[in-house]
């Protein structure tokens, strides 16, 4: 078990270190999310009366579309120099690779989200910088990263990975996005906790289910 | 010891290996020659547990593949023409990373000793992307030897190297990979391959057509046999 955790941490650390030096994934995700927020701001400014109903959707569309860029690169970077083979040669449970990658993806997407939230607050004049919304961000981006990392591994050896990943991922991750949007909207509308309990349940159960599925299936996904 | 019996590998309807048999004793060096597409890389990827055979039996130091892949991975060091290294990490960071996922102990000492042996100690804090092809390949060898595997699989390790760098690489392999390790190497270079081989094989069209004691072979004989076998296979 300790070897599993060591390997997971090593893969996570490696992803952070290489990203820190290249800034390929984070900068692309951040610029995309920022542009999406700006475009939505101008697009909806003229047409939408109640901005509070639109902002949750705008926020999560920006986060998930930007996150898709990062997920696409997550395993593609391992094709350079065939480092994926290097990882698969190691005598360690394959799911360590999944958890290391997933943790890194989660951190990248969450970092973008944490920066985008105050910017959305400024552009749309709706206060999103709140502790309860941070919990939604945590659970939502975690679920998105958990499912996305699995599908990124599934599509990495396909010829049209860039196209295939969103087509496969979005239908599966839709419950996470819907739950996150509904929770964000509910918190902005200051609904009672009991009114949002079902969305919380859906989001948390979905996160757990996909972690378990990934743990059980990842070995078969990355092997030929 | 490596024992391969009637090994078949198929990709869809395309056969990459058609009933390969080979045996390499502990400490022996087998060099495999063959044209592109002969199945050399496929064979080594199966031995390295990166690919599963379609049929046949493979035993590595008594462990059966693919059933006991986890045990086999500890026995194998793989060097290919792809480096398996991260360009944005330094030499030390690359080796430390692989050491951590292999669960190695006394990692700092191992890394330092290996970097010194492959002549990269002074460049240990430099990112791999600043290295020449020859330096990268030396670091690749250090990576493959990090967990001190008894078996080395070398898939065209001299690809992209100039003759001088190739000679240095083979010298390095003999010196630090040497005596007690079992080695299977694929190469297109007959003279260099023959120089380090205990046994040679010629793989063409998925079949291992020839396996001989290399001491009984001159380079000219090997060359004419290679041409005969590969032209027949074509």
Structure write-up:
The complex is a heterodimer of chains A (224) and B (234). With 224 residues, chain A is mainly alpha-helical. The longest helix of chain A is centred in the middle third of the chain and has 30 residues, at 95-124. Helix content of chain A is 84%, strand content 0%. Chain A has eight helices and no strands. The two termini of chain A are 25 Å apart. Chain B starts with a strand and ends with a helix. Chain B has 234 residues and is α/β, with parallel strands linked by helices. Chain B has a single domain (2-233), classed as P-loop containing nucleotide triphosphate hydrolases (Rossmann fold, 3-Layer(aba) Sandwich).
CATH superfamily of chain B: P-loop containing nucleotide triphosphate hydrolases
Largest two-chain interface = A-B, 27 and 29 residues
Alpha-beta classification of chain A = mainly alpha
Number of helices of chain A: 8
The parts of chain B where pLDDT drops under 50 for at least 5 residues are none
Largest sheet of chain A: none
What is the overall pLDDT average of chain A?
90
CATH level 1 name of chain B: Alpha Beta
Largest sheet of chain B: 6 strands, mixed
The number of distinct structural domains of chain A comes to 1
Secondary structure elements and pairings:
The complex is a heterodimer of chains A (224) and B (234).
Chain A: H1 2-22, H2 24-45, H3 51-76, H4 83-88, H5 95-124, H6 131-155, H7 161-188, H8 193-222
Chain B: E1 2-11, E2 14-24, E3 29-33, H1 40-47, E4 55-60, E5 63-65, H2 69-75, E6 76-79, H3 91-101, H4 107-117, H5 133-145, E7 151-155, H6 163-177, E8 182-186, H7 190-196, E9 199-204, E10 207-213, H8 219-233
Keywords for this structure?
heterodimer, A: 224 residues, mainly alpha, 8 helices, globular, B: alpha/beta, Rossmann fold, six-stranded mixed beta sheet, four-stranded antiparallel beta sheet, 10 strands, 37% helix
Quick overview of this protein structure:
The complex is a heterodimer of chains A (224) and B (234). Chain A has 224 residues and is mainly α.
């Amino acid at each position: 078990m300790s070897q599993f955790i060591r390997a997971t941490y090593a893969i996570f650390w490696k992803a952070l270190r290489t990203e820190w030096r290249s800034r390929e994934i984070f900068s692309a995700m951040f610029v995309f999310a920022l542009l999406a927020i700006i475009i939505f701001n101008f697009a909806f400014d003229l047409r939408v009366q109640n901005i509070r109903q639109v902002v949750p959707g705008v926020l999560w569309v920006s986060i998930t579309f930007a996150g898709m860029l990062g997920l696409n690169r997550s395993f593609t970077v391992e094709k350079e120099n065939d480092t994926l083979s290097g990882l698969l040669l190691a005598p360690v449970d394959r799911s360590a690779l999944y958890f290391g990658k997933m943790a890194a993806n989660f951190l990248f997407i969450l970092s973008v989200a944490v920066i985008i939230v105050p910017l959305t607050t400024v552009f749309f004049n709706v206060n999103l910088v709140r502790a309860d919304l941070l919990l939604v961000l945590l659970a939502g981006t975690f679920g998105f990263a958990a499912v996305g990392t699995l599908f990124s591994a599934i599509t990495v050896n396909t010829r049209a990975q860039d196209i295939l990943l969103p087509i496969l991922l979005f239908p599966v991750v839709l419950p996470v996005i819907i739950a996150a949007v509904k929770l964000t909207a509910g918190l902005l509308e200051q609904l009672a906790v009991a009114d949002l309990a079902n969305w919380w349940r859906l989001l948390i159960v979905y996160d757990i289910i996909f972690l378990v599925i990934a743990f059980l299936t990842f070995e078969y996904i990355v092997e030929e | 010891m490596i024992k391969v019996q009637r090994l078949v590998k198929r990709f869809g309807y395309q056969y990459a290996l058609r009933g390969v048999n080979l045996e390499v004793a502990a400490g022996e060096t087998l060099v495999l020659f063959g044209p592109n597409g002969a199945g050399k890389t496929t064979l080594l990827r199966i031995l390295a547990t990166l690919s599963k055979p379609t049929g046949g039996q493979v035993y590595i130091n008594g462990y059966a593949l693919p059933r006991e892949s986890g045990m086999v991975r500890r026995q194998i060091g793989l060097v290919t023409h792809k480096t398996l290294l991260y360009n944005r990490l330094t030499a030390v960071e690359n080796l430390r990373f692989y050491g951590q996922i292999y669960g190695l102990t006394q990692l700092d000492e191992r890394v330092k000793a290996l970097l010194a042996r492959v002549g990269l100690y002074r460049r240990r804090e430099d990112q791999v992307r600043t290295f020449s092809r020859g330096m990268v390949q030396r670091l690749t060898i250090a990576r493959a030897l990090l967990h001190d595997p008894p078996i080395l699989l070398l898939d065209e390790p001299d690809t992209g190297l100039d003759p001088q760098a190739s000679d240095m690489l083979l010298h390095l392999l003999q010196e630090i990979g040497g005596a007690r390790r079992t080695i299977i190497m694929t190469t297109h270079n007959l003279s260099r391959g023959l120089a380090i081989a205990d046994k040679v094989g010629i793989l063409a069209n998925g079949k291992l057509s020839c396996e001989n004691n290399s001491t009984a072979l001159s380079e000219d004989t090997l060359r004419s046999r290679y041409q005969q076998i590969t032209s027949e296979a074509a």
